Each structure stands twice: as C-alpha cells, then as structure tokens.
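Sample log: Acyltransferase family protein.
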Amino acid sequence: MSEEAGTSASIASGQRHYGLDWLRIGAFGLLILYHIGMVFAPWAWVIHVPYAFPELIVPMALVTPWRLPLLFAVSGYASRHLFAKSGRNDAFLRSRAKRLLIPLAFGMAVIVPPEMWVLVREHGYPNGYLYFWLHDYLRWGQFWSHEFPSWEHLWFLAYLAFYTMLLGAAIAWRGDRLFAAFDQLAAWFTRGPRLLWVPVAALVWAKLSLMFLIAERQGLVTDWTGHALYMPCFLFGFMMGGTERLWPVSGRLWKPALATALAAGAVDALIEVFYPGSTPIGHATMALDRAARITMAWAMILVMFQFAQALLNHDHPWRATLAEAVFPFYIIHHPVIVLIVWYAMPLQPSALALFAMLLAGTLAAGTAFYLLGRRIRWLRPLIGLSAQPRAKPPAAAKRLAAG
C-alpha cells in the first residue's frame, strides 16, 4: 500500500467509498468465521463441545482485539455519509432507528430465543422450545444460569444505536460546534504520528482507569470499559467520513501502524498462551494484556482503512449484493451455529465434520434468510434491509462496473 495511493483518491462528500463497503463485508465475514472458530477454541463459549485445539489460541488472539473496534469505526464512517444524505439530523436519526432498532427487536423476539433455549437446556431445562418461548423466554432476571431478556450477539446493534442517538443528541444541541471540533481535531491529527500514538495513549489510559474499578461486563449500562473503546472508534469513523485530510495521514502511517499492531498482537498472543482460558492472572499482566489489545485495535483500524483506500476502493457487480446481505447474515449466523452444534453433538461427529457442517450450514441458512427476506416487503425492515428494494443500475452502468 503506497502513500501515493493513499493520497491520490479523493473522497468527495457524499460519494460512496467502495473500499469501506468491502471492508464492512470482510469484517462481518470475519466475525462469522470467528464465531465458528470459537466452537473449537480452548475458551469458554456459549455452547460446550468435546473439542479444544490450542493451535487456535494464537490466530484467534491476533484477531480478537480489533475485529469489533473496526466494525464500529466502519459503522461511524457509514453514519457520516448517511447523515449527509439525510440532510437533517431528525431524518438521520429516524433512518438509523429503523435500520438498527427494528432488527434488534425482531431478533430478540424471533432469532435469539432458539439459542437461549439451547443454553438453558444445557443446564437442565426440561421443556421443549415452544413451551419455553410461550412461557419462559419473556422474563427478567436469572433463569437456569442465564440472564433474561437477552440480545446475545445482537448487542452490537444496541451499542451502535446508543452511540448514534447520543451523537444525534449532541448534533441537535451544539451541531455547529461539534462539527467544527471534528474539523479542528482532524487538522491536529495531520501533524506527525499523532493519529497513531495519541488515540492509543488516550484509549489505554481510559481502559486502565476503569478496568480495576468497574467489572468488564457486557451490557448497555454496565460495559463502561467497552464503551470507552467502541464509542471513540465510532466517532473516529464519523470524523473520517467527513474529511479528506486524514486519508493521506493513514497512507503515511500505515507501515508504523502495522509494525505497532504486530508487536502488540505478539504480546497479547504470548499472554494468551501462558495464561490460557480462566488461568488466574495478576493485575500487572492483565493491564499489559488490555493495553496490548487496545494498541493493536487502533493500529489495525488505521491499517485496514488504508488497505480499503489503496486496494479495495473500486466497484464490482457483486459488491452491492454482498453489502446488502451481510446484515441479514450477521443477524442469523449466531443461533444457526449454536443449533447446528446442539443437534450435531449426539451424532459424535469428528471436528472436521462438525466444522464442515457449521460452515455449510451457516452459509446456507444466511443465504436463504437473505434471499427470502429481501423478496418479502414487510420482512425487509425486520432483517436490516431498506423498506424499498435497491434500484438496479442500468445496463450501461452494469457493463462499466464489470469492466
């Protein structure tokens, strides 16, 4: 990835960045593969299997720190362009609420319950799924060792909606000042290596300041250490989507950012190897681990944004379809993985056979979910698609994209 490639492509306001589309597609695809890998990794996950491959520790440790921060950064970038397209703050917020909160509600009512049934069954729950859904799913509090209600993997939608609404409230209150602050901050980041080291220092400081005071616990009102990382990544993407001046900076810094990410990833991987699973870990080592993860997360965001800018910023006939399909795939994939494992384990498949079933089954279920949902108008908003099907490009545009 050359610096010239990073500086030559100008991203006009409102113009679609195909590279960020491809990056979003790849990030969600990686997330799905990661969850399949968690079935075989030697860490506790949502469902238990008699497999544990220590060989997965290092590759998964090198992915874990940055996969979700990258998604929040890409989502922030997309939000900036959706804001520009909407024209008004209230229209932007209504649009984002529909695209995030409706699938979240649908997922919690329809998609998540089968997974929760499997989880309580693992702890001895005696009843079938229909009885569970009608009588026991809609409750509040602990039930068979699990918290209800639950959004499971859909927590990402809840967090993203929360950040978007907070941003919208800030824009409504002091929008001019906020956008001026974004412009000033972007200009400040253009000097030297500030875009790499200042956010790392700030994020590490925030994480270490909170982690020994507040438990690391997922939840919209409990995950303050998570918010301290994810929301700045979202806001960075939003800022990046509104300016051209940071793209040359990412082009200039991607090499030191990559070196930083590799060094931090090596530290995190070594800690995972020497302290596997729930092995007790001292405060100093835990602090080093969290600092390494955050350093790798930020550095990889810069690397991947530059990768998208320099190598992926071009259209393809499949891009629009894949970009539309990744959201439905994300919504359905997690319970599909859990259900496949639950029903496959009595057959005692080999690890390779189970992996093949998970890969093929997740791909088939996601494809069917998307193809069916996009054709049924009332179902489209429930699975994260626009209410109206996207317009097909004219034949000339198709030929141009294909060429």
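Observation: Strands lie at 141-143, 146-148.
Observation: The two ends are 23 Å apart (CA to CA).
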